[in-house]
Design brief:
336 residues, alpha/beta, 2 domains
Length: 336
C-alpha cells in the first residue's frame, strides 16, 4: 500500500469508532447498532475498490488514486465533526461550570429615592427567579413599590409590523417553548412574585403601538422584512420532539453555555444580532421611559424587575436627570 499505510488505516478506524460511539450515546443503542452496520458497509464499500481494482486492473491507477483520497477525506469529515463537538463541549463547560453569568441586584440612590434594580432574563432556572424575589421580598413590606417590565400589546396591524422589525414571529408562548426545551422556565412574574404584591405592582413599559410609531417617525420602514417572519417556536418544537433524552440533555447543556456566554457579553452580542435602529427603539427609547417614570414618580422606594440589557442605559438616563444617582450595593444571582 503505497499512498495509505496500515498506520493511516488504524487512525481512520479509531476516528470512525469514536464517531460511532458518540452518535450511539446520543441516539441510543438501536441507532448505534444501525450506524455501526452502515459504517461497516460504507468503509467496506470505500476499501473494496481499492483492493479490487488495484489487484485485477493495476493499469487503472486513477481509480486507485481517487480511492486513496476518498477514504482520508471521509474520515477527515468525521474528525472535524468530533473536533467541533469537543470545542462546543469545552466552551459550554467553561461558561456553565467555571464562569457562569450573573444577574445583579443593584441598589441605587440619589439621596431622595432608593431604587433596587433586579436584572432579569426572559429565560432562567427555578433557582434564579427564587433568588430574584427572595433578595427583595422583605423590602416589599417596607414601603417599596414594585415596577416591572412588560411591553403592552398593540393593534393587530402594529403587532405584525413589530414582528417585521424583529424578523421573527414573536408569540406569547415563544419564551415558554424555548425555556421548556432546555428544562428551564420563562419569566412569569405571577410564578415568583406573590399575588398580593403583584396586584399593586406597576408595569412601567410602553405599548407596541408606541414602539412602532417611534420606529416609523425616526427611521421609516426601510429595515422591516416584508417576507413572512421566521417561526422560531414551531421550529424549536419540531426539532426537540425528534430528539432522544440524551440529545435533549446535550442540547440543553450547549444552550445554557451559549446563554451564559451571551450574558457575559450582552452589550456586544446585542449589537451583533440587532441592527442599530432596532436597538435604539427596543432598548434606548424604553430606557428613557422607565427612567423618567422613576425620576418623576411620587414613589420614594422602588424595586424594579427589568431586563439586564437595560440597566446601563437606564442608569445613564437617571444620571442625566440627576447627577446624584449612584450605585450603593451589588448582589448577584445565577440565571442559567
Amino acid at each position: 500500500m503505497n499512498q495509505m499505510n496500515k498506520k493511516s488505516l488504524w487512525i481512520y478506524c479509531a476516528i470512525g469508532i469514536v464517531y460511532i460511539l458518540l452518535n450511539g450515546w446520543l441516539s441510543g443503542i438501536p441507532s448505534m447498532l444501525q450506524m455501526l452496520l452502515r459504517s461497516i458497509i460504507l468503509i467496506a464499500f470505500l476499501l473494496s475498490p481499492y483492493f479490487f481494482y488495484t489487484t485485477l486492473f493495476p493499469w487503472k491507477w486513477g481509480v486507485r488514486r481517487f480511492i486513496s483520497l476518498a477514504i482520508p477525506l471521509y474520515f477527515i469529515g468525521l474528525f472535524l465533526e468530533i473536533l467541533l463537538f469537543i470545542i462546543l463541549m469545552g466552551v459550554s463547560y467553561y461558561y456553565n461550570a467555571q464562569s457562569p453569568a450573573t444577574m445583579s441586584r443593584i441598589t441605587l440612590s440619589n439621596s431622595e429615592k432608593t431604587l433596587i434594580f433586579q436584572e432579569m432574563s426572559h429565560i432562567g432556572t427555578e433557582n434564579f427567579y427564587a433568588c430574584a424575589w427572595s433578595g427583595v421580598s422583605m423590602l416589599s413590606n417596607s414601603g417599596f413599590q414594585v415596577y416591572y417590565e412588560g411591553v403592552w400589546s398593540g393593534t393587530v396591524e402594529n403587532m405584525k409590523t413589530f414582528q417585521k422589525m424583529l424578523w421573527i414571529e414573536f408569540t406569547d408562548t415563544l419564551y415558554e417553548s424555548f425555556a421548556q426545551s432546555i428544562w428551564m422556565r420563562s419569566q412569569k412574574y405571577e410564578s415568583f412574585i406573590p399575588w398580593e404584591i403583584l396586584r399593586t405592582a406597576k408595569n412601567v413599559d410602553i405599548w407596541i403601538d408606541t414602539i412602532v410609531q417611534i420606529a416609523n417617525s425616526k427611521y421609516g420602514s426601510w429595515f422591516y422584512r416584508e417576507s413572512v417572519p421566521l417561526s422560531i417556536e414551531s421550529d424549536i418544537i419540531g426539532w426537540i420532539s425528534q430528539m432522544t433524552e440524551n440529545e435533549k440533555r446535550l442540547y440543553s447543556y450547549f444552550i445554557r453555555g451559549i446563554l451564559n456566554m451571551m450574558a457575559h457579553n450582552s452589550q456586544e452580542m446585542s449589537v451583533f444580532w440587532m441592527n442599530q435602529e432596532i436597538m435604539d427603539v427596543i432598548l434606548h427609547e424604553r430606557n428613557k421611559v422607565i427612567s423618567e417614570k422613576i425620576q418623576t414618580s411620587s414613589d420614594r422606594k422602588i424595586i424594579a424587575f427589568y431586563g439586564a440589557l437595560h440597566f446601563n442605559g437606564i442608569f445613564e438616563e437617571l444620571k442625566k436627570r440627576d447627577i446624584r444617582w449612584k450605585v450603593l450595593q451589588i448582589e448577584n444571582c445565577y440565571p442559567y
